[in-house]
Fold AB hydrolase-1 domain-containing protein.
Amino acid sequence: MHFVKAPVLILNGEKDVVFRAGEADFARAHPHARVELIPRARHLANFDDPDAFTDAVRRFAQQLSAVS
C-alpha cells in the first residue's frame, strides 16, 4: 500500500452526494488531510461556483508555500 506524505485538500461541493459519501474515510486515511466544502455546490463544484473553488485551491497552495 502506498501513502501520500504531502498535505491533501479534499474539496467537494456541499451537495455532492457521490463523493461526499467517502469524504470522511479519505480524511481519516491521511494525517494531513483538509476537508473543505463549496457551499450549495454539487459534484462539479468548480462549475457551480468557480470563484469559491479557485479561492479554496489558492488558500491551500498558499498554506503549502508558507510551510516549505
The mean pLDDT is 90. The first strand starts at residue 8 and ends at 13. Helices lie at 23-29, 45-48, 50-67.
